[in-house]
């Protein structure tokens, strides 16, 4: 989806990677000038997707919250409580370092991997060992691609990146950077534009 998420309509599952909530407040504590969030722009984005898609399950593919506790965690708790009918799952990422008891204050299910049937397996980082006939859906990489035009203009865009048994989702959070990937042999790259996702020609 152009919102930098994926949706499985038959399962009513919404997949979102690398929101990094709390990063704005984290930056401010470090002396980096950035507006203080009243309510996360990224949570607004998730809320809009929930309203339009009506998922039964939302899977956060890691790095939901950026490092140490700050007041943006309260916003996240309020958000989760407002959507108590939805199952929220977090495949824990390297930035999800809050203590276990903090996560347990919510209904968020925190796991290392999360299977969706027999052939889909969600994780934060792409898995090194994947069973045959299984697609690993992951985040962590923040994939991006450079598109060049005939006028010698260059555009850096987030993308979905599919190689072998791994599909990497773009980072959802607006304060995340991009890791510019070179298209490997056999890879399929799907740049994300404001209103559509397109397949990049080989």
Kindly identify the CATH topology: Purple Acid Phosphatase, chain A, domain 2
Name of the CATH first level: Alpha Beta
Structural class: alpha/beta
Could you tell me the radius of gyration in angstroms? 17 Å
Distance between the termini: 21 Å
Number of domains: 1
What's the total count of β strands?
Answer: 13
> What spatial form do the alpha-carbon principal axes imply?
globular
The main sheet comes to: 8 strands, mixed
- How many helical stretches? 4
The level of helicity is 10-25%
Mean of all residue-level pLDDT scores: 89
> What percentage of amino acids are in beta strands?
25-35%
Written overview of the protein:
The protein is an alpha/beta fold. The chain has a single domain (6-191), classed as Purple Acid Phosphatase, chain A, domain 2. The protein is 17% helix and 28% strand. Strands 6, 7, 8, 9, 10, 11, 12 and 13 form an 8-stranded mixed sheet that branches. It has a 5-stranded mixed sheet with strand order 1-2-3-4-5, with helices on one face. Helix 3 (72-82) links the parallel strand 3 (57-60) and strand 4 (87-91). The radius of gyration is 17 Å and the shape is globular. The protein starts with 5 loop residues before the first strand and ends in an 11-residue tail after the last strand. The model has no long low-confidence stretch (mean pLDDT 89).
Please summarize what this structure is.
With 202 residues, this protein is an alpha/beta fold.
Short descriptors:
202 residues; alpha/beta; Purple Acid Phosphatase, chain A, domain 2; eight-stranded mixed sheet; five-stranded mixed sheet; globular
């Amino acid at each position: 989806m152009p919102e930098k998420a994926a949706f499985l309509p038959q399962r009513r599952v919404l997949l979102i990677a690398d929101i990094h909530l709390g990063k704005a407040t984290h930056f401010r504590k470090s002396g980096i000038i950035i507006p203080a969030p009243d309510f996360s722009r990224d949570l607004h984005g998730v809320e809009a997707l929930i309203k339009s898609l009506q998922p039964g399950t939302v899977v956060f593919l890691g790095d939901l919250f950026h490092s140490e506790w700050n007041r943006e965690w309260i916003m996240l708790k309020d958000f989760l409580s407002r959507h108590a009918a939805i199952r929220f799952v977090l495949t824990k990422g390297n930035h999800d370092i809050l203590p276990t008891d903090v996560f347990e204050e919510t209904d968020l299910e925190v796991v290392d991997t999360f299977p969706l049937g027999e052939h889909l397996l969600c994780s934060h980082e792409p898995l090194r060992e994947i069973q045959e006939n299984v697609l690993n859906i992951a985040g962590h990489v923040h994939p991006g691609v450079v598109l060049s035009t005939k006028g010698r203009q260059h555009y850096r865009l987030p993308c979905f990146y599919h190689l072998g048994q791994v599909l990497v989702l773009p980072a959802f959070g607006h304060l995340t950077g991009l890791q510019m990937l070179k298209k490997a042999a056999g890879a399929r790259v799907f740049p994300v534009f404001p209103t559509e996702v397109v397949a990049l020609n080989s």
